[in-house]
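G., the chain you wanted modeled:
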Amino acid sequence: MTREARTTPIRVMLVEDHPEFRDLMEALLSMQPDVKIVAQAGSLSEARAHAARFEFDVAVLDLGLPDGSGADLIADLRRANPDLRVLILSASLEVVGIEKATRLGANEIMDKLAPLDEVLDTIRRLGSA
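Predicted structure as tokens:
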């Protein structure tokens, strides 16, 4: 499905343990008419609870969370929604973490320092897949 053909906003769950960065991402993504933040979490446990309550198309996950790796969340999210697309957006892009996230099914991996336009383009592409 192309972005033009989509009639509803891309529903996003944002999982990020740094409240300032999460708030900034939420503010920037909420300004986009084709993107809707449906849930936010600061930990794996919080994200798992949200996954049971909300429907979303794209999960934007940090790898470094206080109660584990965001990569560990991918399998749980995919069990609830096999069509879910996962974007890892993290400052901790160690080879081991990247390999684990890729092995567990991350669709894209980006550094938090990536330009916002690239992050938005990736969310839109994943949400339209």
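The helical segments are 19-30, 44-53, 71-80, 95-103, 116-127.

Shout if anything looks off.
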